[in-house]
Amino acid sequence: MRTRRSAVLPTATALAVLFGSVVLASGTAAADSSKVLPVRSTGDIVVDGVHKRVFISDPSQGKVVATDYAGKVLGTVSGLPSVEGLALSDDSEQLYAAVPGDDSVVAVSTRTFAPSARYSTGEDTAPEDIALAGGKIWFSYSSGTSGNIGSLEVSGEEPVVALGQDDESGWYGTPKLDATPGAPGLLVVGDPNTSSSRLGVYDVSGGTAVRTATDAGSRGRYVDFALTPDGSRLITANGGGHHWIKRTSDLAETGSYTTSDSANAVDVAADGTVAAGSSSWYSTDVNVFLPNAKKAVRQYDFPNTGTHSGSDTLANGALAWEPGGGRLFAVSSNSEGVYSLRVLTDPTKSVPTLTVTAPASAPRAKSLTVKGKITASVALPAGTPLTVTRTDVESPKGKSLGTKKTTDAKGTFSFTDTPPAGGKVTYKVTYAGSATHTAAAASAKVNVSRATPKLSLDRNGKVYDYAKNVAFTAHLGTTYKNRVVEIWADPYGADKPKKLIKSGKVNSKGNLSATVKMTRNTTVTAVFAGDARYTSKSVKSTAQARAKVTTTVSRHYKTGKIGSTTYAYFHKKTNPLFTTTMTYYKGRSQRFALEIYYEGRWYDVGTEYFLIGTNGKSAIELAGERDTDLRIRTRSSYIKGGSGDNVNYTTHGAWKYFIFTK
């Protein structure tokens, strides 16, 4: 929308009244912001370039919200029923608001956000829009369906209101207004209520409105319009897919800006740059046109912050340039009725598209070619400087390859490089930007080959007694710079995590050793991380550890030897007790085996598994009928897989021999 200003109006000091509440805050502007606004509708938006504030009226809640340039709320003026149009005084000290629900124009301090004056426009006038021109405040109003314009002069001791300044135009409902400081005696009035496209241009330099041009076209109702800085042209948003250009001298149509359907907002910067907005769920929301250009230099498509499939849309008339600055402010709403202030930075700069391509793979120390192209809505000249950075294993923070001024007239470029390091190599090309273009960057990755080093690890497949300390030795062959090897131990069982047991440089023979206490089967891994010329590599060695198994015999009355074997002697009526101690693991069982000796051979009687207690013990008592003088033996074993787990190597305990007597 417009940033309306007056060239001569002083700050109003009379009839100061307090409307509603004033909430004060402070803050600094920040670029590229999008903040949710505490509003439920949008009537008008103006930007105060002196105090760096944005004012937004909310008719549905009867308030004006003031934010900083990042959208942070600095103050709220409430008690302004159905407030619509806004305008700034020439010195930016006062904000004037049209308040139809109170039949008044209210002045608000732009420093404190406190209302400083109320000017009645007459009973049942309901002023909606406002503009400052010819040393007066001009407002639009209606009586029933008949619209008109009036003026308010506050330079004297008492305010002077003059109604009925255009009784002959036949406005249907309240019209819209616009003025510009570059043509202080010019006022434009348009019909937003019907499809008649009625416009009027007025000379207000003499204190009254003298119509100098009129038009009743066929473009549809005027959702918004804005004057160029010198007042010679008027840009209109009529709801279609164009923003039309008209001469103010005779309102003849001289061209248009092609935009999106539902054109609903427009504002013109001090240098003549046009921001043309549309209410569009699935297309561009804002197009920016440089002076005398018909192709947009910048386009904005708002994201979707609601639940509807379409994106957020621009509110009617909700565009405003920063006076004398480069920001463009827009108010958008989503499908949930949430409004946001969007700060569009660098809107007059063309956004380049930069592409970079490189081979997917390449050999190390061999020349390769990187190509690319940079394009923009505003063409870049040949020789545009681009900088290149190479990132690889040896230069993880990037190494500058200098500036490549190789773009041709089409924006294409290429350069060669010989990558000294292997692995993933990234070439990043950067355009720094300029007064007419934003910065851009793109990159391409190349997988550069590396040699495979020799790496080995001993002890694979070996079996060791329980708790034996075993040294595992890794051997690393030729590499470039890195001579560090890591040795990891991963014991079997989910309760024992993989653990780094040693990391260091190999010795002059290329060896590095680490000791593992073998209480479980363990996979040991040697890892070489690689370097600029040799790829990473890892090797594994799995060694196994026996379980610890011992069995004691009790309740016998003596021991004695039969041949060279020691037997425990039990009375026939005594139940032998065999207590096995085994390395504990959750859910582990021992296998108990029983054999008898008959005619020179041992015969299997049977085996059975018994659970090991958390104390690592399992006690078995033999009961039942038994014969005397029969030689028997038993042993307890851990069976890998059969005992309920696989964390140890199959381990058999010693045979225990016994015999029953009378």
Keyphrases for this structure?
mainly beta, 4 domains, disordered N terminus, 0% helix, Immunoglobulin-like, five-stranded antiparallel beta sheet
The fourth-level CATH homologous superfamily of the largest domain is: YVTN repeat-like/Quinoprotein amine dehydrogenase
Q: Give the % helix.
A: under 10%
Oligomer: single chain
Q: Into how many domains do the coordinates divide?
A: 4
Provide the low-confidence segments as ranges: 1-30
Largest sheet features: 7 strands, mixed
Mean of residue pLDDT values: 92
Task: Provide the CATH topology of the largest domain.
Answer: Methylamine Dehydrogenase, Chain H
Percentage of residues in strands: over 45%
DSSP helical segment count: 0
Our measurement of the CA-to-CA distance between the termini, rounded to an integer number of angstroms, reads: 117 Å
Organism: Streptomyces paludis
Protein name: Ig-like domain repeat protein
Keywords: Signal
InterPro entries: Quino_amine_DH_bsu, WD40/YVTN_repeat-like_dom_sf
Walkthrough of the structure:
Strands 48, 49, 51, 52, 54, 55 and 56 form a seven-stranded mixed beta sheet that branches. The chain has a five-stranded antiparallel beta sheet with strand order 1-6-5-4-3, with no helix packed on it. Strand 9 and strand 10 form a beta hairpin. It contains no helices and 56 strands. InterPro entries: Quino_amine_DH_bsu, WD40/YVTN_repeat-like_dom_sf. Keywords: Signal.
